Each structure stands twice: as structure tokens, then as C-alpha cells.
Batch of 2 targets.
Target 1
Amino acid sequence: MSNYHIKNLEEYFQVYRKSVRDPETFWEEIAEENFLWRKPWDRVLEHDLTQPAVRWFQGAQLNITENCIDRHLYARGSKTALLFEPNDPSEEPQHITYKQLHERVCKFANVLKEQGVKKGDRVCIYLPMIPELAIALLACARIGAIHSVVFAGFSSTALATRINDCDCSIVVTSDGGYRGAKTIDLKGIVDEALEHCKGVTTVLVVKRIHSEINMHKGRDIWLQPLLDEASSVCPAELMEAEDPLFILYTSGSTGKPKGMVHTTAGYMVYTAYTFKNVFQYREDDVYWCTADIGWITGHSYIVYGPLANGATTVLFEGVPSYPDWSRFWAVVEKHKVNQFYTAPTAIRALAKERLDFSENHDLSSLKILGTVGEPINEEAWHWYNDNIGKKQCPIVDTWWQTETGGIMISPIPYATPTIPTFATLPLPGIQPALMDEEGNTLHGNSVSGRLCIGFPWPAMARTIWGDHQRYKDTYFSTFKGYYFTGDGALRDTTGYYRITGRVDDVIIVSGHNLGTAPIEDAINEHPAVAESAIVGFPHEIKGNALYGFVILKETGEQRDPANLRKEINQIITEHIGPIAKLDKIQFTEGLPKTRSGKIMRRILRKIACGETDQLGDTSTLLNPEVVDAIIKDVL
Ligand code: PRX
């Protein structure tokens, strides 16, 4: 039996027990047997979750790109590493072999070096889903620079906040991006952002859409000519196990976005291990995750996890609806995809379309289907299982977070029997616990509570960039000695976990984490707005959509409501991005508040969900009369 690759349920339980009884030996064996180390560790784990201070493989030295690329060169040099499928189906796909990837990463790394980037420097990457995006990550990792990828759907304001938060002096972007029938002016967005980022001295620009763009003299440089000149030899920087590998921002319920810091060795070991087991990857498989590399799913399960296993990983530039809703299935057929990993929101959108979009394609290559990012409802699960998997493919409902770095709770195909809507069992090394609101651990089965993790795992984020106190306060202070996920969950009679959703003010819309506070801050900037509150309500495709209750200033009350709604969504788009737009905006005279002045979101949530008969006790409100007024005008 190998710890690294679990093949049946009995093995899972054996491995799981070992991982809990003796985590250090468990992870040490996996690390020793499956990776390339330049220097071994002195200690497998040092930890104190109250601080929190967690160090895995302390003393070890390595470079993650040697593990993701160099060590495959001998046996897999001519195997496709990245399989690029462009937005336009008539454009040729690119098969980038491990050998070619090595050369392109080394050249890119040398360009970064020539531009003065050194170990520990932060590099902001704002690119569409093109090969250069994956290559840019790896090029940073090659020389020990810390990448901070910003999803290319974020606005210039959101980009500027992220660039400034971690002091990037260099940005990698492109002249634009394709998204279905549209093009996105990424360089224009970068130009706007950089008006507020005085620290950025260099912008490297990839040519993708061949549009006319403004090149800022002395700052902006086309990437390709530099790559053409660069050497393809670039020795990998020796990294300490706990050196930061990347920063990735995620929304919190309050304040500015949190720059989650992931470090090198633990992240590598954990993403590789979970990729291998959750997707049961075999040597000749073609694996496709439809996420964007701008999110953690793309970092861990398009780039690092698959490449660390020598896999072929598809990088898809397009969208599921372009040129029509058959695109995913056309790509599966074309590249004979074996593992397919997507989000419930995409499945729900696809399920609403005609069945012949999938029926007209040969999906027989598929072996495993995955979902991630939000709870999957039963109907969507069955549609996926029946029409895409033809009841032959295990579905892995994988629960995890930007902060966890890798998949935490998930079935292991062919081992864990699946049940719709259940993420099922913790992966080896993961020790979940459910808590009640007072902080008591709920033992036994058939309980529900707040989902926590009671022991460190290798890929956990180590801190929030520049704000360790916030890291501690957000995740490690609610339940002493535990990592608090912010999610609620239930454990059923067999010990299976079902994630029930956020218990804080984060709302998951189409699988994207959106904090209410930053959206409210954006709306409140509108000159006609006095105050606002955002809550989520169920949406057929997006899972949740946003409902805004907005109090207008006197000047606003004279304005046309339809125009105001448009302007409010425009302001949100400018501050955050189109993903945070509100589906419903209700203008109201007041918001229900507690005597201490806090908005009672619980009541607004019920109203937005149409559950006005379940408002509970409103007598403690400062202004109970506004509740009736809001209900009267509900949209
Ligand atoms: O609420 C959970 C939900 O997504 C949150 C994490 O979002 P993010 O950091 O953007 O990472 C998404 C991709 C890993 C979680 O706190 N979530 C994620 N996966 C699931 C899920 N909820 C239910 N079931 C899942 N499989």
C-alpha cells in the first residue's frame, strides 16, 4: 500500500487513521518518496494554532518548478504539459510539452531578472487565460519572486488596491483578452489602476488581441522581443520550505481584501497529493479544470498540483456559452478529456440549455467529474451525473478555500461512495470539527455546526500579507486552537460532511466569494446614496444573487429610480468588477438596526428570500416600523 495513491475505501480508512495518529510520519513519507528536495528538512512540523505559527518541512530547500517541470524532462520531455484551447474554436490549440514549458519558463524568468526582479519581490500578474499566465507563475517561482495574480475580471480600482497592498513594482499584463464574442481591454484597466500605484516601474505586455494600446514610455515593454533575446538557461533559485510562493487575495466580510500568503514546500506536497487522489490521475490522462488561474482553484489544480504529477492540464481561454452552449463538450471530445472539474454555477447554466448540446458530443473519455466553489444542489448533481457522466463517472464534490490551499473534504473516486450534496469525508491529514456557537465541540454524528479544522495541514495559508493580527483574529480567535472556516456544515449518521454555506457576511455568487462590506462601501460612494446593506438570496443559476437595500439622500429621492439602479451597478463595476453587480436594488426609508446601531442583516436576508413569515423577534430593534415598510415594497 502506498500512502500517496489511495485506491479503495479500506485503504482510505487505513491511510486516514495513520495520518491522524502520526501526521508527521505520514507527511514525511509522502514528501520523501514523491518530490525532489535540494536539502532535506530538519523537522516535519512545528505548530501552534493559537498564534498561529505553522512551519512544515523546516530546514528543507527546494524549488517548486524543479518539481513541476525539470524532474519530468527525462521521462516526459515530449509529453504535453499545458494544452491550450483558445477562445475561438477555429484557432489551433497549442500542445506545450514539458520540454517547451521548461524553456519558456526559463526565458520568462530571465526576463524578470533582467527587469530587476529578485527573490522575495512581488510580481502582479493580470492576464487572461493564455499560456503566458501559467508560465508567468512558474517564472516567478523559478527565481523566488512572489506572484500575486489578480483575476482579469477585476476592475482597475480592485487591481490598484491589490498592487499597492503588497507593493508590487512590476505588472505582467496583455494588450487585451478574448471572452466569448467580446474583447476586454486589460491594458486600459492596468493604465487606469497605475494612476494610483506609484510604486510600479515596469509593465510587461503580452500581445494577445493585437489591439491598439497606449505604451507608456519608460514603463511599458512588449514581452515577446525580450523573450526572443533571453537565455533559456535559468538555474532554479534555492528556496527555503517556508519561503512565500504566492499571495492571492480573497474577500473578507469586512475591510480590504486579504492577501493570503502560501509558502513553498507544504503547498507543493499537499496540492500534488490531493490532485493525485481526488482526480485519480493516470499517466496518459488529459485533465481539465475550467476555473480561471486568477482563483485558487486555478493555482492549485490547473498549475501546481497537475504539473507536480507530470500531468497534461488543459488551459481554456473561453467561456461555456461561446460559440454556443456545446463548447465544454466539444473540448472534452476534441482533447479526450478524462477528468473534468468545474463549478456548480456552470453546471446549472448548462442544465438549462438544450440537451443535444452535450448529446451531440462523444463524452466517453470522461472518467471523473468534479465540482468546487459552492454547494451543489441535488438537481444539478443529477443532471451532471446523468447527462455528462452517464452514471459511470464518480462525482467529486470538493470543499476547500483560498485559505486552505488545497482540497480538504472530498470523495476519493472508486473509494468513497458519493451522495449528492455531500462533500463526504476529510482527505488524509485533515481533522475537521464542528462547533456550536459557544465554542463547544460537537461530538458524534448527526450534528451540525461551524466547520473548523483542528490540526495544521501542509497547504494552509500562513498569514495575511502585512497583517498577521488580522489572520489570527479572522481565523484563529473564534475557536481557540482551531482554524475557523466561516462555513457551516452538518455531519450525517455515517460521518459524511455536507457544507451548508457561509455563516458570515461573505456571499458566494457564481462560485465567487464576495464580501458585503466592500460592495456597500462602493455603493455609498454614489452621491445620492446615504446608506446601504447587501444580502444574498437564492438564484437558479448563480446559487446566490445580491439584493441591495439602499437609503437615498434627499437629493436622490428626486431622481429616476431606474437610472439610479444603473448608476449603482456601474459604481460597483468600477470599484470591484461586474461579478459584484446587484440583481435587485430596493430603495427604502430605513434599515432595521439594533439599539447599538448595527444593521440586522438576518431580517433583510429573510425579506430578500421571501420568508417574511419567519422574521423572528423584531422587538429588540431600534426601529421595528421600518420592517413593515420594507416588506411592503419588496421586489
Ligand atoms: O463557502 C465555501 C465555498 O467556497 C468558499 C471558499 O471560496 P474561495 O476561497 O473562493 O475558494 C473557492 C474554491 C476552492 C468556502 O468557504 N465552497 C467551496 N467549495 C465548496 C463550497 N461550498 C460547498 N461545497 C463545496 N464543494
Note: Residues 98-114 form the longest helix (17 residues).
Target 2
Amino acid sequence: MCGIVGYVGHRQALEVVLGGLRRLEYRGYDSAGVALLDGEGGLAVERAAGALSNLEKRLAEVDGGKFAGRSGMGHTRWATHGAPTDRNAHPHRDTSGQVAVVHNGIIENFAVLRAELEAAGIEMASDTDTETTAHLVAAAYADGPTAGDLTASVCAVARRLEGAFTLVVTHAAEPGKIVAARRSSPLVVGVGEGEHFLASDVAAFIEHTRDAVELGQDQVVTITRDAYRVTDFFAQDVEAKPFSVDWDLSAAEKGGHDYFMLKEIEEQPEALENTLRGHFASGGIVLDELRLTEQDLRDIDKVFVVACGTAYHSGLLAKYAIEHWCRVPVEVELASEFRYRDPVLGRDTLVVAISQSGETADTLEAVRHARVQRARVLAICNTNGAQIPRESDAVLYTHAGPEIGVAATKTFLAQVAANYLVGLALAQARGTKYSDEVAREFAELSAMPEAVRRTLSTVDQVRQLGRELADAKAVLFLGRHVGYPVALEGALKLKELAYMHAEGFAAGELKHGPIALIEEGLPVVVVMPSPKGRALLHSKLVSNIREIQARGARTIVIAEEGDDEVRPFADELITIPAVPTLLQPLVSTVPLQVLAAEIARARGYDVDKPRNLAKSVTVE
Ligand code: M6R
């Protein structure tokens, strides 16, 4: 949620900040704003509700000279406190207009802080929790032990805040300096020649430098043109962790597509290849950062998978693989529900936390809860050094590359592959699979990028279908076994992109209620299992299709090449390559992603930035 950029250096800060915000707009697009320091005590702020383009238009209308400084910051907002209006857009200022603040996260004790400030006679100019921090920093800078020291003032304020936050602060009296504090919310420092950057995500500064520094929990960073300094909330120096970003600008650009999502759908074979690469060595599966012993893995008697949204759907698939290969019970749970129902956890429980961003608040809190209960936590994550992997006992990174489209596509496939690697690693450690069986499963997994490539080469038919379905009122999705999570994922994609009513069902449940929804012409997408691998399930699904067809549904069937049995019952047949059952979701999901994107485009929606959504959900 919310994208933050800060810059101090030798360039025109406005250009750098706007360039960074463009790359971070996926994090929130309710409003945007910038604050620029002119180096002579002037602090210019401009904000606008809506997309970043509104802010850019407004900036083009105002006097350019005002925004010519070489240090500044910017923000794209996903609203939590206060409506998405100009008044609530960041940056927020103190009453003197000397301090400007941008913020990501939620300040949980803001009501108390606000009451305290109002009692002291301060009139609030917005409805946000953020604004309180601008007034608090101004007061700390004006008076008392931190007077005249921006870093110390920010530290003092950060110590008073509860909740999760990244706070970036500037003061007109200290141009050429930006101070940021972080707790449970992302912030990275970019290190250039005579310039430094701050951002929620490296994508914001990758154009200028690949040298970055990761900030830890409860840390403050001060950047100037020539240096950066990292401290704790008590202004004591701490060691920071430098790293180098291993992807370049082209990975974060659209590459000729209208939307990032369309490019990301096409990148799925590479996402799978990169996720699998290097994980089979010396005759076995190797995970990335494993701070658990082989004995720990052998002792596990229960697995919980926790995740949200699309990552949760990938987790549902993990259950099929892990139970099948490892003979250990697996429960899959929405991270937002997990800690509130008091799950039974202990040292022999493995909690697998799946998160593309590694910063989803619900999943992070589930991880923390699991660790307090002494369970072992293994994170599957696409973002190096994010909070969830940092707080876990083991990590397996999905190397899908940056995913900018809000709808998860390539990271879903990469998560499914990573889940299967975890299943195989567990099977190997626990001895439920011989090493040659593990090697065979890995080889089958390694053949999937090619199968996905073949699937992608046949999606024109799906695009055409998407355009035909643009006016449908609703679409249902049915599947059985591993086809069921795929049905859920297909429905989620359609809801979030096309704002269309869509539901995924286990096909066997149809007769227990949902069949009442079937009416003349209702499109129903059915994900068929393999006629050979799952003959019994296949024939049951054929019966389900006949039932809905008899009631007037328009049947859109996704089936393996050569599945002639289902052909007569498909109003529209979409074929996918025949692959082993557990791996079928890696191909059957692809047409559903394309379908949702195409329906959304036909309805005139921005598929990268669906309304009301943000890429990373850092609030509970
Ligand atoms: O970053 P995470 O994987 O933890 O995000 C979880 C969900 O918010 C995410 O998958 C969301 O459902 C996507 N927008 C779905 O396309």
C-alpha cells in the first residue's frame, strides 16, 4: 500500500521523484503528491486526488521554478484514514509549513496523538493519521533535547508511534537531508554517486542505481547527497545490509504491451524456470535459506499453509502435493483468520507462509503468531529481504521478477512451483519418497515452462471469447481436485479486473446449492481433470457439465488436448497440454488469466490498476 520515493542528489529531484512514483503507482492510486526543497528554505508541495497523471497535470500548470530543488519526496496513496481527496493526499505539513511527511502504513495510536495535538491548539488540515506526525516532528525539532536535529526528532516521534509505518520526513531548515523511519513496512535505500534514494520498492530507483541497502525493523535512515546513516529509534548507529538488485529496468517496463499484466502473463515460462533453477543439486532438492535441520523437517507432524488472495489459492494446491508426497496432514488457512481462531501449533508444526510481496500484514501477523507458539515458519516470497522472509526460519524465493500488475499472475505460477519444491524437500527429508522419485517429480516440474509456452501460443481463442463475454452479468467457475483452486483463482481474477460477479465452486458442490444460479446463457467455465490420470473425476465432471447445460448454461470447457469425451458438451472448448495431474494448474490457470484480462479490457478498465485495490496490502 502506498508508494514512497525520496531523493537527495545532483539531479532535478522532481523528475527523479515522479519517475519513481510512476513505477510505484501499482502500490496505490487514490492520490499522489510531492514535496520539494529549493535549498533556500522553501518547501513546495503539490497534491492531487486520483491517479498520478492528475498530479502531473497540476504540476505542469504551476510555476516550474518552485519545484526546481535537488531534494524531495513523493507519495502515491492507497487510502486508509480519510477519503481519497486532495485534502488527505500526502505529503502532509505542520502548521508552519516547514515540515513535510509522507507515510505508508497505519498509526494505530493516532487518535490519542491527534487529541493531544488538538488540545495544544493545533488545527488539523486533514482526516489522516499521517498528519499528526508532521506536527510532532515540528514540535520535537523546535524545542527540547532534539531541537535543531531532524534525525533525533524523527527518532523521538517514531518511538511514540504504534502500528506499522514507513515515515519519510523533510524540514525546510535542513534542505539536502531526508530522514525516514520504518517499522513493519517496506523501505529501501538506493546508493548512487553523489545521490541517495529512498523508496518502498527498488523499482523506483533501479533506473539510477542497483546498489541498495535494506533497512531492519525499527530503524531510521538519514540520507544526504554524499552519505547515508542508519540508526535505531534511539539514534544509535546500526549496521545496515547492502545488496545489489539482480534485475534491470527492462524487467519493470511494459515491453511493448499495453499493460504490465499482459507482459507478466507472457513471462510465466521464465518465472517458472527461474524459480526452479538451482533447486536440484547433488541428487536432491535444495531450498534457499534453511535455518532448520533435517531432523526438524523429519519431526514435523502437521503443516499449516497461510496466505491471502491468489497466494492462498496456490496454498490450496500445496495441500494436494504435500499430503500426497509426504503423508503429513496439511491445513490451508486464510492468513487473516489464522491467529484469531487459536490454531493448535507447536515445535513440530511447520507453517508455510506464502506471499509475493512479503509484506502482506495478515500473513506477517500469522507468521508472528506461529513463531510465538514456537512453530517453525517457512516463507515463500518473491521479494528479497522483505519482512515475512526476514521473520521466518526458512525461505524459498520465487524468482518471478517484479510483478507490477495488481493482479497476481506469474507469481502465482511461481508460488505453485515453489510449493511443490517444498513438498519434495519435505518428502526427501522424511523419506516418504526415494531420491529417484524426487528426481523424476523435479524433472516433470522442469518440463512445465515449455508446457506453459505452448498454452500461451493458443490463447487468441480465449481473447476472442473474452470480448464476447464482456456484457455477461456473471461467470461461474467449476473444478474438482486441483481444478478447484484453479476455479477459485479464475473467479478472483475476473472479480478484481472486470468488476464482474464471479464465483468458483468445487463442481461436486453444485447440487448442494449453486446449481440454482444456473440460467439461460450464464457462462460457466469448467476446468476438466485429465481423462487418463483422473478418469473417475473426469466422468463426474462430464455429468456436472451435462446438468448445467441442460439448464441453459453456456459451457466453456478447459480440457486436455485429445479429451474427446467432453467435446460434445462444450459450447466452447479451450485445450491445454496434457501434463501430470498435480501440475495441471500451471497450464489451466493461464487461459483464465487471459480471459479475465480480456473481459476487463473490453469493458474499458485499467487491468494494471483495478479500482480499490493495491499490490501490497500492508494493513490488516
Ligand atoms: O503479496 P501477497 O502475495 O501476500 O498478496 C496477497 C494478495 O493480496 C494478492 O494475491 C491479491 O489477492 C492479488 N491482487 C490477486 O491477484
Note: The chain has a mean pLDDT of 93.
